[in-house]
Write a structure and sequence with these properties.
The complex is a heterodimer. Chain A is α/β, with parallel strands linked by helices. Chain A is built from seven helices and five strands. Chain A has one domain: 3-Layer(aba) Sandwich (Hypothetical Protein Ychn, Chain: A), CATH 3.40.1260.10. In chain A, helix 6 links the parallel strand 3 and strand 4. The termini of chain A are far apart. By secondary structure, chain B is of the alpha+beta class. The chains are: A alpha/beta, B alpha+beta.
Chain lengths: ~140, ~90
């Protein structure tokens, strides 16, 4: 297959605002499924979604959001299973097989007093909303998580 | 016709299959494993992907069709499926 006549990849845009295990895992699953299918995926991590990428946060597994009783407990124990992948390792694998770009929302950086050095290397830069929208204007799929 | 001895035909042994054991990995882990090995290995390589994820039954054939690689066989086994796949192009 020659690359010159290949159409540009389909694009998916994701805004991540949460940091519980029950949001981060579906987020990583969606993103990696799209990357495996050949989509270019752009993620804007904002608020708690940005906090999730703090190096201190990625060092340990995220907690399950409260109020889910036995189901929540099942998820907690499933996450501790020997072959259970972490949401971060799923994203790293997605990045190794395709196009995944994660940006930090500049407003959240300022409000939360974060610096780029405090974030996991998966986050490749800090961006304003207009740049993110411009970058994803041709996305055929978009999610707000 | 000369009397020269014809060399024996080269034995075309089936290429060894690379086993990718993704059992226990959650959706879309098995698909990602397959995408990664197909990217890394040479054209003609055959793979046996083992997956216990139910989503793989549709995801794997769909991806192979879109990516134009060959699905040789899907063999259901106890508790998992074995996908036999061939990389057909770079």
């Amino acid at each position: 297959m020659s690359s010159s006549d290949a159409p540009p990849p389909e694009q998916m845009a994701v805004v991540l605002t949460e940091n519980s295990a029950d949001k981060l895992l579906p987020f990583a699953t969606l993103v990696s499924g799209a990357v495996a299918l050949g989509f270019r995926v752009d993620v804007l991590a904002s608020y708690w979604g940005l906090v999730a990428f703090r190096k201190t946060a990625t060092a340990s597994p995220p907690s399950v959001s409260p109020g889910h009783g036995e189901d929540g407990a099942r998820l907690e124990s499933a996450l501790k299973a020997p072959r259970a992948p972490s949401w971060k390792s799923i994203l790293e694998m997605a990045k190794s097989i395709g196009e995944l770009h994660i940006y930090a929302c500049s407003q959240s950086m300022e409000i939360l007093g974060l610096s780029k050095d405090e974030l996991d290397p998966l986050v490749e830069g800090v961006t304003g909303v207009a740049t993110f929208i411009d970058r994803t204007r041709s996305a055929s799929v978009s999610y707000f998580i | 016709m000369s009397e020269t001895e014809t060399p024996p035909a080269p034995v075309s042994a089936a290429p060894p299959r690379m086993v990718v054991d993704a059992r226990g990995s959650w959706c879309p882990g098995p698909l990602m494993e397959l995408v990664r090995v197909i990217k890394d290995e040479p054209v003609g390589t055959e793979f046996e992907l083992l997956s216990s994820d139910e989503g793989s039954r549709k995801d794997i054939p769909m991806w192979l069709e879109k990516a134009h690689h060959q699905l040789i066989e899907v063999r259901p086994e106890s508790g998992f499926d074995r996908f036999i796949v061939r990389k057909t192009h770079d």
